[in-house]
Every structure is written in structure tokens, then in C-alpha cells.
Design goal:
With 207 residues, the protein is an alpha/beta fold. Helix content is 29%, strand content 19%.
């Protein structure tokens, strides 16, 4: 069975993708943020992601309250935590150190999607691809964990980069939104990719 996805559809004002938004503790592109926030069915912050949300919405924080904030709360600033607590946002402390705040936040998000009966196509994560290399690889690792957490595709967006884990099988990625750049990369991670065939690229693979 072939899966199909237009990953950047979520950034189109008139896009059709239904999604939930998860914000990580990394710099936020304001343009991406406002487009994603306005269309998200559910909005969450992973620990210090709440700091990013608080500061990017400076002066209008009351209009941008997340559905919940989760994590071990070692990164969220005390004043930010108190602000969202007073505003009635749900704070969920997750002390398990075997998983990242991103992974734990994703676990909670899936449970809320099921509880609320939300009909969504994808989970969009803002942040996770800048800064320390170990943090970037942790984001990649979470995409592997995600396959056992949620049946939904999980994409990670930051500035000019978007990553998405392709499972074994056939995939069709629609790249006609006008937001795409000139390049893409296919990177084997976790296991050898012994058979890869592509079409539609300048230099296709057929191994």
C-alpha cells in the first residue's frame, strides 16, 4: 500500500492537512508559528518549548495558551511556568529520564487525541533541528519511538528544514506547495536500506 503526504501543506494558509502542534525548546520562526498555531486542533509544549512560546508571543500571550505543557520542567523558566499555571493551562510533570521530553510529550498528545476523538492527519513538531548535535539526533530518535506511540505521521520543521521518517514500503511525497526548496536528502538511519527506488528527483535512486 502506498502512503501519500504533502508535508508542507500544513504551512499553507489554505492547506487541507488537519494536525496537532508540538513546540520544542528551540528558536521559533514567527511565520511558521503563526500559520501552524492558527490551524492546529491541539497545541502542546515540551518543557522549555513553553519559554519559546511565551517570548515569541510577547505582548499577546493571553491569545496563545497551549492545551498543555509537559516535561521534567528543568528547562521551563519559573515565571513562564507560573504564568501558564495561573492562566489555567494543564501542566503535566514527567520525571522519566529514559525518554526525552519530546517523546514523552508525544505520548501524552496521542492519548489526548484519542480521548478527544480528534480527526487529524499528522503531528507537526516545531523545533528540534538546531543547536547541539545530540539534541538533533534525539529528535530523529523520537521519530523512531513515534512509530510505536502513534499511527499518525510525525514531521519536524525548523527554518528551512523538514524531516520525516519513511517506513519500509511505498511513499508518495507531494512537493507542489511552492514552499519547497531545491534539494532533499534520503538518509538511511537505524537499518540498512537495501532497496531504494525514487522517481521525480533530478538524480533518482534505483538500488
Amino acid at each position: 500500500m502506498e502512503s501519500a503526504l504533502a508535508p508542507l501543506d500544513c504551512l499553507l494558509p489554505a492547506g487541507n492537512l488537519k494536525f496537532c502542534l508540538l513546540i520544542l525548546n528551540q528558536p521559533i520562526n514567527k511565520g511558521h508559528f503563526h500559520c501552524l498555531w492558527s490551524k492546529a486542533a491541539l497545541r502542546a509544549c515540551a518543557d522549555g518549548g513553553a519559554n519559546r512560546l511565551y517570548h515569541v508571543t510577547e505582548g499577546s500571550q493571553d491569545s496563545f495558551l497551549p492545551d498543555y505543557i509537559s516535561g521534567d520542567f528543568d528547562s521551563i523558566q519559573p515565571e513562564v511556568k507560573e504564568y501558564y499555571k495561573v492562566k489555567g493551562c494543564e501542566l503535566i510533570e514527567t520525571m522519566d529520564q529514559d525518554l526525552t521530553d519530546f517523546t514523552k510529550c508525544l505520548q501524552i498528545l496521542q492519548k489526548k487525541i484519542e480521548k478527544k476523538g480528534l480527526q487529524v492527519d499528522v503531528i507537526v513538531t516545531l523545533g528540534g533541528l538546531e543547536g547541539r548535535f545530540d539534541h538533533i539526533m534525539a529528535s530523529v530518535n523520537t521519530l523512531f519511538h513515534a512509530t510505536k506511540i502513534t499511527p499518525l505521521p510525525v514531521i519536524v520543521i525548523q527554518e528551512c528544514s523538514l524531516i520525516y521518517l519513511l517506513q519500509p514500503g511505498k511513499h508518495k511525497l507531494h512537493v507542489d506547495t511552492g514552499l519547497e526548496g531545491d534539494w532533499c536528502g534520503l538518509i538511511p538511519v537505524g537499518n540498512p536500506c537495501e532497496s531504494v527506488t525514487t522517481t521525480g528527483l533530478k538524480w533518482n535512486l534505483n538500488t
